[in-house]
Amino acid sequence: MKTNLKISKEQSLAFYKDMLRIRKFEEAISDVSEDKEIKTPCHLYIGQEAIAVGACRAVEKEDYAFAFYRGHGHYIAKGGDTKKMVAEIFCKSTGCCKGRGGSMHLISPEVNLFGSTAIVAGQIAPAAGVALSSKLRDDKKVTLLFFGEGATEEGVFSEIVNFASLKKLPLIMICENNNAAAHMKLSERQPIDDMYLKTEPYMPSFQIDGNDVIEVYSKVKEAAERARDGQGPTFIECMTFRWKGHVGPLLDIDKGLRTAQEIDSWKAKDPLLNKDILSGLLDSEIRDIELEVDDEVKQAFRFARESSKPDPATLLDDIYAD
Amino acid sequence: MVREITYADAIKEAFDQLLESSPDTFVMGIGVKSPWYVGNSMKGIFDKYGEERIIDIPISENGITGITIGAAMAGMRPIMVHPRMDFMYLAMDQIINSASAANYMFGGKSNVPVTIRSIINRGGEQGAQHSQASQAMYMHIPGIKVVMPSTPYDAKGLLVSSVKDNNPVIYIDDRWLYNEKGDVPEEMYEVPIGKANIIREGKDLTIVATSYMVSQALVAAEELADKGIDIEIIDLRTIKPIDEDAIITSVKKTGKLLVVDAAWRHAGVAAEVSAIASEKAFSYLKQPIHRLTLPDCHAPASSVLEEVYYIRSDKIKEKIQEMIK
Ligand SMILES: Cc1ncc(C[n+]2csc(CCOP(=O)(O)OP(=O)(O)O)c2C)c(N)n1
Fold first, then answer.
1. What is the ipTM of this complex?
2. Is B130 known to be catalytic?
C-alpha cells in the first residue's frame, strides 16, 4: 500500500539533490575506475539512491547508521564529507580512513555513520549492539541498518532478528533487495522472493518500492517513531536494482549475468525521475541543483587528486587506540 | 609424459580428475561457477559436472561448511571452497568444533574426510577484510591438516592427497601463484602430506618458506648465487603436521635459519619453525634465527602502504645479506 504522505517543497529539493549527488559522484568514480586511476574495488550504488536518501532524511544527524561495502551512497546521504570520501577512494592520506580502508570501508563519525564492512552481514550484529546501547542509555536514538538481501542468508541475520525483537531494540533494518548477490540472482540462492516474510513473525515487516524516495522516507519515519517510543525494530524490504555490475564500472552483461533489456527496464524506474518530486520543482531549481552538485564533485575530486599519498612510515600507526 | 602448465590449471586438473574418478566427490562454495572468485582455477568444471556436483551456494559459509562436514561424516569426499580466507572465518566453528574434534572425541568412530580449499587473494587496494592469509589459525588446531602448495606440481598432487586423506584437510592456494608454470604429470598422482621439499640445495643458509614466499625466496637465492652465497630453500608444503626432520637436517647443515611466511608474525608458521629449530638443533645454530613475516598489522588499502606491507624477493635478499656478512 502506497503512502499518501505530502512532502514539502524543501523536502523535494533535498531528496532530489541528495539523490543527484550520489548519482554524480558514482558516475565520476565509475569513469575514473575505468581509467584505473582508482584501484580500490568500488561497488557502485547507482539505481539504489532513493533508499539511502529516503532513510537518512527520515532520521536525525545524531541517529546512527551502518552501511556496507556498497556504501558511497549511504555515506553521502548520511551527510559525510565528500572530499574525505573521494580522497579515501583514491587511498590518499586525507581520506576518511587515511587511505587504509579504500572504497569498501568508509566512516563518518561526525554524522554517526559507523565504518562499513566488506564482510557480507558483518554490520548486522554491531548495528544491533549500537541499538542496544541506545536502549540502555535511553538516548532515544535509532540505528539505521542497511544490508543487501544476500546478507539475510548468513546465520547472524536470524540471530539478530530474534534478539532485536526480543529486546525491542531501536533498530531499523533496511534490506536493499536488488535481486543479485555478485554473480548470482536471488532465485539461485533462495527458494523465496520476499525477504520481509522472514521477519514477519518477529517485527513489523514491509515490502516497498525502493526506487520511490517518498515511500522509503515515510516507512522509515514511522519505524523511527515506533523505535523511539520503545516499540522495537522494523524490517523494511526495499525493492530495487543496481544499474552497474557487482563491482566496478562494467555492467556484467558480458559475463552473461544480466541482459541489456533488464537494465533498461529498471532505468525506466530511475529513482531520480520521481514524478511526485519533480512536479514540485521548477526547471531553474533543477538546473541550480545540477550546477551545485557538479561543483561539489569537481572540488572533491580536485581535493583527492591534490592530496598526498600515505607516508609509508605511518604503516604501523593506529593498530591500537591510545 | 611431463608438460608445463600453470598453477591454476594444475588445480583445475586435480578437480577434474577427482570428480571424474569418484562419485563421492562434489564441490560447494561461493563462486565455484564464477571466474571472479576462483580465478581460472576451476574454469569449465561447472559446465562439465553440472550443478548437482558443483554447488554454488547462498552466502552462508558456516552452515554450508558444516554441510560438507556432514557429507564427509557419511563417507563422501566433498571439497568446500572459500574463495577468500577472510570469508572462511565465518566457518571456523564448524571446522574446529565439528570437523577437527570428531575423530578424537568419538574415540576414532567418526572421521571427517572433507577438504576445505581456501584462497589467499590480496593486493589491489582491497584492504583489511579482503587480503588475509590466516594459515596460522588452522595449524593451531589438533585433528586437521593444513597444506600450502607453492608449485604447480604440488598444487595438483596435494589437492588429490587432501581429498584422499581420511581427515579434514585445509588446502590453501594463492592467487599470486596462478600464472606460475611448472612440470605437471597428466595422470592423477599424490604428493605426501607432511613432507617438505628441498627446492634448492645450498650450504650457507637455510630458508624455510611457505607458498608464494617459496617462489620469492628462489628469486632472491638465484640473484645472490652470483655473489657466491649458497642458499638452501625448504618448501614446507604442509604446515600441519610439519616436517620437523627436514628443518632440523638442513639447519644442522647450514647453521643459519631464515623463516619466510607471508602472514602475521605472532604465533604463526615462522614462530613454530623457529621453535622447532631451537628445540631440536640449538647447538648447530651459529646466530639467532630470523623471521620475515608481515608486520603485526592489518592489510592497508593504499598501494603505497601495500608496497611496504607485503614481502617480495628484494626484502628476502636484504635479509639474507644481513645474515651473511
Ligand atoms: C562473508 C562473505 N562472504 C562472501 C563475500 C563475497 N561477496 C561480496 S558481495 C557479495 C554479494 C552480496 O549481495 P547482497 O548482500 O545482496 O548485496 P549487494 O552486493 O547486492 O548490494 C558476496 C557474495 C563477502 N564479502 N563476505
1. 0.96
2. yes
Query: Which one from B125, B130, B140, B223 is the annotated catalytic residue?
Result: B130
How many Å apart are CA A217 and CA A5, to the nearest integer? 9
Whether B290 is catalytic: no
What would the pLDDT profile of B60-113 be if each residue is shown by its tens digit?
999 999 999 999 999 999 999 999 999 999 999 999 999 999 999 999 999 999
Q: pTM surpassing 0.90?
A: yes
Which residues of B, range 129-168, sit inside 8 Å of A by Cβ? Answer: 129-130
Return the residue of B nearest to A317 by Cα: B297
What spacing in Å lies between the alpha carbon of A207 and ligand 1's midpoint? 21
- pLDDT beyond 90 at B325: no
Q: Does B219 touch chain A (CB under 8 A)?
A: no
Average pLDDT, chain A: 97
Q: What residues contact residue A262 under an 8 Å CB cut-off, 6+ apart? A: none
Report the gap between the CA of A227 and the closest CA in chain B (Å): 29
Residue ranges of domains in chain B = 2-185, 197-324
Identify the CATH number of the domain defined by range B2-185: 3.40.50.970
Give the tens place of pLDDT for each residue, B8-60.
999 999 999 999 999 999 999 999 998 778 989 999 999 999 999 999 999 99
Per CATH, which fold does B197-324 belong to? Rossmann fold (3.40.50)
Q: Are B86 and B263 within 8 A, CB to CB?
A: no
Domains B2-185 and B197-324 share a fold: yes
